[in-house]
Amino acid sequence: MADEQLLLAGAGGHARACVEVVEAEGRFLIAGLVGLPSEIGSSCIGYAVLGSDDDLPMLAVRHRFALVAIGQVGSAGRRVEVYRRLLDAGFELPSVVSPRAQVSRHASLGPGCIVMHGAVVNAGARVGSNCIVNSLALVEHDAIVGDHCHVATGAIINGGAQVGEGSFVGSGAVLREGISVGAGCTVGMGVSLLHDLPGASRYLGEARR
């Protein structure tokens, strides 16, 4: 039975999805959430919003573990900011894996990741810190996903592909095996990426350019 408490830094839609995964994994009890100053005292699916970013040092005195529970569409900036503030406050950032996901024992996850229901991280894959591998996503063998990335729902990163730090791979997108996506890129929903993408680029598919 869980006896360690986990603080979720975020109180919006992605936080609700994170609550579901944390509860299902059963390794932590949810201590509460951190939200906007205007959200303090409210609740998110039964869990209280205990404070805002400014309260993190005080909350770290009471709670050892935390997880960034803010979504990422496009820019990773806000997730990176909160991740660093959690570390600076002294929190430990575990990775959380749904019991309905499959992460190979031959794969690696950095600190502060969440792997959601139905996702697969296959043998030899490496996922960096503070990443979201969202529901039904696939990170195939030997693929590398850099820090602060979001692999969105149903996205497929095929074998040996590399995704640079802070990038976003949209729902249902497919990355061809062995290609490289630079840092800070956006790969649009449902597109097939067949070639390397340089850093800070957006690829939304031929039909939507």
Rg of Cα set: 17 Å
CATH class of the largest domain: Mainly Beta
**What number is the mean pLDDT?**
96
The number of domains: 2
Mass-distribution shape: globular
Distance between the termini: 51 Å
* β-sheet strand percentage: 25-35%
Q: Extract low-pLDDT stretches.
A: none
Helices and strands in order, then pairings?
Layout: E1 4-9, H1 13-25, E2 28-34, E3 43-44, E4 47-51, H2 56-62, E5 65-68, H3 77-89, E6 96-97, E7 102-103, E8 108-109, E9 114-115, E10 120-121, E11 126-127, E12 132-133, E13 138-139, E14 144-145, E15 150-151, E16 156-157, E17 162-163, E18 168-169, E19 174-175, E20 180-181, E21 186-187, E22 192-193, E23 202-203
Parallel strand pairs: 1-2, 1-5, 2-4, 6-9, 7-10, 8-11, 9-12, 10-13, 11-14, 12-15, 13-16, 14-17, 15-18, 16-19, 17-20, 18-21, 19-22, 21-23
Antiparallel strand pairs: 3-4
Structure explained in plain terms:
By secondary structure, the chain is an alpha/beta fold. It folds into two domains: 4-94, Rossmann fold (3-Layer(aba) Sandwich), CATH 3.40.50; 95-197, 3 Solenoid (UDP N-Acetylglucosamine Acyltransferase, domain 1), CATH 2.160.10.10. The chain is 16% helix and 29% strand. The protein is globular and about 45 Å long. The N and C termini lie far apart (51 Å).
